[in-house]
Amino acid sequence: MQKIGLQGLYVTGILCLFGAANASAHVVAVDPGEYDGQWRADGGSFVTGPQSVDLATGSHTIQVGSVGFFTIEVDAGGVVVVPNNSAVGGPNQLTFNTIDVVVDPAAFDGQWTISRGEPANFASGVRTATVVVDTAAQVAVGSAGGFTFSANTAGDVATSAVSAIGGLGTLTFNTVDVVVDPGSYAGLWNMSRGEPANFAAGVRTATVVPGVGSRIAVGTFGAVDFTADGGGVVTPANPVSAIGGLNAINLNTVTVVIDPAAFGGQWSISRGPVSSVTGAQTVSLVPGTLFQVIAGTFGGFFVDIDETGNVNVLNGVSAVGGTGTLTFNTVDILVDPGDFLGLWSISRGEPGTPIGGVQTATLVPGTPFQFIAGTFGGFFVMADAEGEVEVSNGVSATGGSGTLTFNTTVITIDPGDFTGNWSISRAGFFTGTQNVALVPLVSFRLESDGAGEFFTVGEPCEVNPSLITLGAGTFTLDCGCVDTDVDGVCDFEDICPNDPENDADGDGVCGDLDVCSGDDATGDTDGDGICDDIDFCTGANASGDADGDGICNDLDQ
After folding, report:
1. pLDDT of residue 77
2. I need a surface site. Which of 76, 241, 283, 423 has the fewest CB within 10 A?
3. CA pair distance 31, 50, nearest whole angstrom
């Protein structure tokens, strides 16, 4: 081992201290100036506006927006030095240099923005962008395109892309027109964040920016990306989905037979070639893209199709795909509305028309369905491939294996001085104060005199609103129920609403009406004041056997 003396130890200590000083962090106040976009230091989290950051002695990278970078040096004293024109340094401070550029999208009527920059929100038309000098900024065009540019201290804007032309404080888009022909695809399409922006069908002309990606949105979720060069030659990103040409792109299609099998409700392809249909249908779809098949109103599952027409069901549960075929899977569940006496249905499902009582419903597994209680109250239910049922809110109903049972909460509706008829839409017609069993967390409509207002019963019970005025009536809606005989059983389900003992003798006659004690179901049939179970003289003979000869008065000669 080599030995070192005191002088060596002293030098070593100085070097260690010097190294520690070099590694120490400095608090640097970073001011982005007029730049309102996002920035970050050394790959940290993106921030906006002035920030204080800890920077060690040495080199650091400042990222501006999505693609802009410049480097800085921090010396041992915390002084920041910037080797280019992007910012100005100083003792523990860094200030961005900025310049305004007027961006003109010219004939492009779609949406654009500066990625992570400013303006940050997608919009259309001429706008002013504030950028950091001598750093790259990315223009995001539509949903899938983008190109970069930069501006120097003099305001000269430069870009290497064919997408735009720079000038003094200006950037102007180049554009080309492309005729989009969907072929036999009869569904809706548009240019995502582009132009035409509105969904429609058939042949249309799109104005695009050359050199950047453009996206045709097919249906709701399908996408066909392509690029047009400066001469208008179109190249699809996926040749399975489309064929390019000079100022033209043609969508490819394949034919698929869709069979809903035992599902008798309505089905659709979201923004596709069919909407709210029943039974089997033959459709033309674009291969290499995604489509959503809707069962009922809200239940959806995704499929994609290859160039041979082979259909793949992404969740593997809702349907079975094949070459040119798609067949729904179905499960039957027994629906019990419980104490809810109104009508119920499944939105565009089966049963699709309002119906009451216990019924069997046919669902497509792996997709949500909306159950409607009354006219407007809805909650979502989904069954898996084995028929196990789940209720989305966990309150309105209880699911089981092949079963669904509505939960109910009893409320009292008091019309006050109003003596006319009132109703709950598709849940009953009433007069006076009534107890009503309703499904929690769904909307119901109280109606009277041609007017109506919605209310909801919460869980635990809370009625909102609790006071409703309709025409001449002011209705009070309270949790709980009317219990006239105070026996703990609501009048609407109490077999003897005025008898707290509820026919104690079990003779089928409520105590408040029973003139005969004991289990005498007939009472005093002849009205002679003697109950039938001890009356040996039947008929209208109030005196019985007056002479005691064993012959009833009405028969005694």
Report:
1. 95
2. 76
3. 4
Digit-coded pLDDT (tens) for 222-268: 999 999 999 999 999 999 999 999 999 999 999 999 999 999 999 99
Torsion of CA 361, 367, 368, 370, to 10 degrees: -50
Residue 114's Cα: distance from chain center in Å?
Answer: 29
What pLDDT does residue 7 have?
40
The three-class DSSP label of residue 225 is strand
What is the rounded distance in angstroms from the CA atom of residue 75 to the CA atom of residue 77? 5
Q: Are strands 80-81 and 58-64 parallel, antiparallel or unpaired?
A: unpaired
Strands 377-383 and 359-363: unpaired
The DSSP secondary-structure symbol of 154 reads T
Residues 6+ apart with CB under 8 A from 208: 108, 142, 145, 175, 176, 177, 178, 191, 194, 214, 228
C-beta separation of 437 from 340 below 8 A: yes
Inter-residue contact 80 to 28 (CB < 8 Å): yes
Average pLDDT over residues 49-76: 97
Question: Phi and psi for 528 in degrees, rounded to 5?
Answer: -95, 10
The answer to whether 241 and 307 have CB atoms below 8 angstroms apart is: no
The sign of the dihedral angle between the CA atoms of 360, 363, 365, 371 is: negative
Find the angle CA(493)-CA(495)-CA(498) to the nearest 5 degrees. 100
Can you name the residues that pair with 207 across neighbouring β-strands?
177
Q: Report pLDDT digits (tens) over 137-167.
A: 999 999 999 999 999 999 999 998 899 999 9
**Cα 98 to Cα 428: distance, rounded to the nearest angstrom:** 69
Q: Which of the residue ranges 11-15, 478-482, 528-532 would you say has the lowest mean pLDDT?
A: 11-15
**CA atoms in the 13 A half-sphere facing the CB of 555:** 11
Residue 231 burial (10 A CB sphere; 0-12, 13-18, 19+): exposed
CB 131 within 8 A of CB 116: no
Q: How many CB atoms lie within 10 A of CB 195?
A: 22
- 347-382 residues labelled b (16+ CB within 10 A) or e (exposed): bbbbbbeeeeeebebbbbbbbbbbbbbbbebbbbbb
Taking the C-alpha atoms of residue 472 and residue 450, their distance in angstroms, rounded to an integer, is 11
Q: Mean pLDDT across the chain, nearest whole number?
A: 90
What's the confidence (pLDDT) of residue 543? 61
Is residue 489 within 8 A of residue 500, CB to CB? The reply is no
pTM beyond cutoff 0.70: yes
Indicate if the pLDDT at residue 19 is higher than 50. no
List, in order, residues 6 or more apart from 1 with CB less than 8 Å away. Answer: none
**pLDDT per position as a tens digit, 186-232:** 999 999 999 999 999 999 999 999 999 999 999 999 999 999 999 99
